[in-house]
Structures are given as C-alpha cells and as structure tokens.
C-alpha cells in the first residue's frame, strides 16, 4: 500500500512540474526560450567534454578537449 501512495505522489510531482514549466514557458519570449535552449546545449556539450577528458589518454587529444572546454566556458559566461 505504501508503494501506491508513493507512486501517486510521484505522479502529482510530475504533473506539477509540467504545469510549472508550461506556465514559465508562456511568460518567456521566443528569444528568451532560444537563449535558454542554447545555454542548455552548451552545458551538455561541456559535460560531454569533461567526460571525454576523463578517459582521454593521448596528450594531443587532451589538449584539444581542454581547448574546447575553455571555449565552451567562455560562451557560457557570455550567455549568463
């Protein structure tokens, strides 16, 4: 029975999150939405680069990843 209550709570939280996101999106202009999407894309790219940096063993490859990371971080600062 506890599991049933828990799933209802999760369902309510998901519905609330969707409602909040929908209301927030209505308040944003198309330009603001595009800017937010670009920022999310840059953050995901940065995360992917960090993961690649962790496993990179070749020194030249690591340098390229570090350079890409610096550029992404510069762009992210410009987006803020």
Give a concise summary:
By secondary structure, the protein is mainly α. The protein has helices at 2-27, 30-55, 59-79.
Mind explaining what this structure looks like?
This protein has 80 residues and is mainly α. It has one domain. Helix content is 91%, strand content 0%. It has 3 helices and no strands. The termini are far apart.
Strand content: under 5%
**What is the end-to-end distance?**
46 Å
Using only C-alpha atoms, the radius of gyration works out to 19 Å
Strand count, sense and closure of the main sheet? none
Sheet/helix structural class: mainly alpha
How many DSSP helices? 3
Overall 3D geometry? flat
Features:
single chain, mainly alpha, flat
Give the helices and strands, then pairings.
Elements: H1 2-27, H2 30-55, H3 59-79
Helix pairs in contact: 2-3
């Amino acid at each position: 029975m506890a599991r049933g209550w828990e799933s209802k709570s999760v369902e309510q939280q998901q519905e609330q999150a969707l409602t909040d996101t929908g209301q927030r999106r209505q308040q944003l202009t198309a330009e603001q939405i595009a800017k937010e999407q670009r920022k999310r894309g840059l953050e995901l790219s940065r995360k992917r680069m960090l993961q690649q940096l962790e496993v990179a063993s070749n020194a030249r490859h690591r340098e390229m990843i570090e350079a890409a990371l610096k550029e992404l971080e510069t762009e992210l600062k410009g987006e803020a």
